[in-house]
Design a protein that fits this description.
4-stranded mixed beta sheet, 1 helix, 106 residues, mainly beta, two-stranded antiparallel sheet
């Protein structure tokens, strides 16, 4: 039997979220061990293992890594990318250093 492989990551917010709620959690998700094979009767793809259906949630990255080490799971860690939001202010609309000039035709 082969050692299961997993990836540990912090999921990004979905497109349906405007805030950052529930984005601080860390997930341990098993990788697919092999490609599925079509079932002879129904034609659906079958998987040799159901581990790919499991997603474990942890409060910190260290907890997820400790769990993987304790269960002897090979893992890779993907660090989250920080979103860069430039500061904006209403006063910038009227500043002298605007990037785009006012349209005089309005």
């Amino acid at each position: 039997m082969t050692t299961p492989r997993a990836k540990i990551y912090s999921p990004a917010k979905t497109a349906m979220q405007s805030g950052k709620g529930k984005t601080g959690l860390w997930l341990l998700e098993y990788e697919k061990p092999a490609a599925g094979t079509p079932d002879a009767l129904m034609g659906w793809n079958t998987m040799p293992s159901t581990l790919t259906e499991i997603k474990l949630t942890f409060a910190t990255k260290d907890e997820a890594i400790a769990y993987a080490k304790r269960k002897k799971i090979e893992y890779t860690v993907s660090e989250p990318k920080k979103a860069v939001v430039p500061p904006k202010a209403y006063a910038e609309n009227f500043s002298n250093g605007k990037r785009k000039a006012w349209d005089a035709s309005c």
